[in-house]
Write a structure and sequence with these properties.
The chain is an alpha/beta fold. The protein is 33% helix and 11% strand. The protein has one domain: Aminopeptidase. The longest helix has 23 residues. The chain binds zinc ion.
């Protein structure tokens, strides 16, 4: 798992970028099942430029919150080969694109303002928007600009959000197929690290995806309190009826229980490396949350309530 030593944060970040392909969304579940088996394809150079601008969708926002939906794309253009590479996951996180849109609509309905939204429109069989360049494209060089454009869209959203407020939050929205129906919140801390005592976990926040927040949260919450205290994101969801780990009710995954602790986007777009933006990966369960339009709308309302409290408590941001 992720280990930390006295080396620099940048070195740690680079190391994590190298190994995180093992901890992103997995496959082989109902929620993540591929719609079709990958086929072997020989990469070729496209006859015409790829319409990459059509495959990255950025929606402008008015609050210091950026939501990424990397694994909910539904486009499978024949101009692209299917990804084939050792260990590649090609199954989508079912309904997470529509869930992100429902959350945006819920914000708009509640406060008349939307979060920034960045959506990968390509199916994961064609492109993985939560991996390094090589794995994202399975080495298909013509698709490299897609990877650059996706992350540039997130960088742009963060820059525009920072004009609204000095600091902000990135939520990387996913769906898991694990047995336990709960949100898995990823801060780049492993399950075994989360099982440590609060006193032992607290110093690890310095190399988490909320490293900045742990130092400067307006609430003065830091360390383990930021992960599972009463104002933590997990505790906010839990209090609203959506189980989450870590939280005050469920401080850490038990040994042997599946848990995703973050991924490429959480590293690149959070404050592990100096940034005014923190990042949290939310891996959502399927049943009762993202399976039907009504359930997605219901969760979206909970999401808005939880995030408004979180932005108020820790970032000092409230709707005007
Ligand atoms: Zn995912």
């Amino acid at each position: 798992m992720i280990r930390r030593g006295p080396h620099s944060v940048v070195t740690a970040a680079l190391g994590i970028l190298g190994i995180l392909s093992a901890v992103g969304c997995g496959a082989g579940t109902k929620a993540d099942a591929p719609t079709a088996p990958p086929t072997t394809t020989t990469p070729t150079t496209p006859a015409v430029p790829l319409p990459i601008a059509d495959w990255v969708e950025g929606i402008d926002g008015q609050i210091p919150l950026v939501i990424i939906a990397p694994h909910g794309g539904d486009l499978t253009p024949t101009s692209l080969p299917d990804r084939v590479c050792a260990g590649c996951v090609t199954g989508n996180d079912l309904n997470t694109q529509v869930l992100a849109r429902a959350i945006s609509d819920a914000f708009s309905g509640r406060i008349g303002k939307r979060p920034f939204l960045v959506i990968n429109r390509l199916h994961r069989r064609k492109f993985d928007a939560n991996r390094d360049l090589q794995e994202a494209t399975a080495g298909y060089a013509p698709l490299a600009p897609m990877w650059s454009q996706f992350h540039a869209a997130i960088d742009s959203a963060k820059a525009r959000a920072q004009r609204l407020h000095p600091r902000g939050l990135v939520i990387d929205l996913h769906g898991h197929g694990h047995v336990i129906q709960r949100l898995e919140l990823g801060y780049l801390l492993s399950a075994s690290e989360l099982r440590l005592s609060d006193a032992a976990v607290t110093p690890l926040l310095a190399t988490s995806s909320v490293a900045q927040l742990s130092r400067v949260a307006l609430s003065r919450d830091s360390g383990a309190v930021l992960l599972r205290g009463p104002r933590s994101l997990g505790s906010r969801f839990s209090a609203l009826g959506i189980p989450a780990v870590p939280s005050d009710a469920d401080p850490a995954p038990l040994a042997g229980h599946d848990y995703f602790n973050g991924g490429f986007n959480t590293v690149r777009h959070g404050s592990l490396v100096a940034s005014p933006f923190d990042a949290i990966q939310i891996e959502s369960h399927y049943t009762g949350l993202r399976d039907t339009e009504a359930n997605r709308a219901g969760f979206a309302e909970v999401f808005v309530t939880a995030l408004l409290a979180y932005l108020r408590d820790h970032y000092g941001w409230v709707p005007a």
